[in-house]
Amino acid sequence: MINTDNIHELIGKYLAGEASPEEAMLLDEWRSLKRENEALFKHYEKIYTPISGASERVEIDTPLAFEKIKPMLKNDAVTRVTNRSNTFFKIAASIALLIGVAGTLYYLFSHSISSTIVYESGIRQQEIKLSDGSNVLLSAQSSLSENKNYGKNNRTLQLKGTAYFSVIHDSTMPFIVDVGKVYIKDIGTKFTIDADPTRDTIFVNVDEGVVLLFDSIGSSLEIRASEKALYIKSQKRIEAPAKLNNEKLHLVFTHARLADVLLKLNSVYKTKIKLENSDLSNCEITTQFTNEELETILAIVSETLELSYVKTSEGYLIKGEKCK
Q1: Beta carbons within 10 angstroms of residue 201's beta carbon
Q2: Domain limits of the chain?
Q3: Could you read off the pLDDT tens digit of each residue along the chain, which spans 324 residues?
Q4: Is the dihedral angle over the CA atoms 3, 6, 7, 9 positive or is it negative?
Q5: What does the alpha-carbon distance between residue 101 and residue 45 come to, in Å, rounded to a whole number?
Q6: What's the CA gap between 229 and 211, in Å, rounded?
Q7: pTM of the model
Q8: 269, burial (CB in 10 Å: exposed 0-12, middle 13-18, buried 19+)
Q9: What angle, rounded to 10 degrees, do the helices at 21-33 and 35-52 form?
Q10: How far apart are CA 224 and CA 222, in angstroms?
Q11: Could you tell me which of 128, 132, 107 has the C-alpha nearest to residue 117?
């Protein structure tokens, strides 16, 4: 049960990237309880975002940042007081809210934002050596965030995009990658995370050791060496991993009709994939797959053509009005 007395501090920790997965789950639960809760969170987020942007390995000037936020606090207080009647309780509520805003911003600027480091790879991949000896190969057009407490009281990173991790294991301080309410926890391993924010699917591929894939609603799955799994964000669903085949299965489709692609997949994977709408038969796709699981292929094909798919008692059904 979340302690609402500390909600402003918790929001501050979350926006600063310092909330643990458990705290993030508690905050998600609190936000879903009332519309007012979500509105308050969005209010803080709106104030925080314009000031918190950072580029490659940037540290924020805390005093300067707080000076920038002062007019927002002042205007917010005036608006809230003048737009309400002058009853004692409504004024008190405005003051209480302002105190909460100030408390949250104090946490962000005096405790967290100033210690946030963001790595951005730009057009080339970037190699990052973390303070605990772990290594990250950050793919192009990706970003990785940490705070200066990394390696001291936590080993949590925020990833947008794709990265390969070679982790120094520490059983007393788990290594966790946050990709937005979905988490990958190291249990001594080397692994790849593909979490392009423009896609609905997160892919995890383990080379060595074990990772735990879990989300904010309690779903979890262990992925071992030579296994992979995917997480479908819109469905909040983890797909079970499968061991990579020793013999490579290479599928190539060049300007192929979707109907022909499904015929090939049905033959190779011994399943029944159908189209809900026959108008989708002539949609064209150019892609290739090597040793991919069927649901990984379906996820990529669906996203590419802006369609969706569901599992049925017979196999799978691809849905959509028209393709991209």
Answers
A1: 21
A2: 4-116, 121-243, 250-319
A3: 566 667 777 887 777 767 777 778 888 888 888 888 888 888 777 665 544 444 344 444 444 444 544 454 444 443 444 444 444 445 455 544 555 555 555 555 444 444 678 899 888 889 999 988 999 999 989 999 998 788 888 899 999 999 999 998 888 888 999 998 899 998 878 899 999 888 888 999 888 888 999 998 888 999 888 888 899 998 898 987 655 444 457 888 888 999 999 999 988 888 899 999 888 999 999 888 877 888 889 999 998 899 999 988 889 999 998 876
A4: negative
A5: 11
A6: 11
A7: 0.51
A8: middle
A9: 130
A10: 7
A11: 128
Q: Do domains 121-243 and 250-319 have the same CATH topology?
A: no
Please, are residues 142 and 163 in contact by the beta-carbon 8 Å criterion? yes
122: left (phi over 0), alpha (psi -120 to 50) or beta: left
Strands 250-257 and 273-275: unpaired
DSSP assignment string, 200-259: SEEEEEEEESEEEEEETTS-EEEEETTEEEEEETTTTEEEEEEEPPSS--EEEEEEEEHH
Structure tokens, 276? 């809900």
Q: Which fold has domain 121-243?
A: Jelly Rolls (2.60.120)
Q: Which of 5, 27, 106, 118 is nearest to 63 (CA)?
A: 106
Mean pLDDT, all residues of the chain: 77
The third-level CATH classification (topology) of the domain covering 250-319 is: Phage tail protein beta-alpha-beta fold (3.55.50)
DSSP codes joined into one string, 2-64: --GGGHHHHHHHHHTT---HHHHHHHHHHHHH-HHHHHHHHHHHHHHHHHH---TT----HHH
Do 119 and 143 contact (CB within 8 A), yes or no?
yes
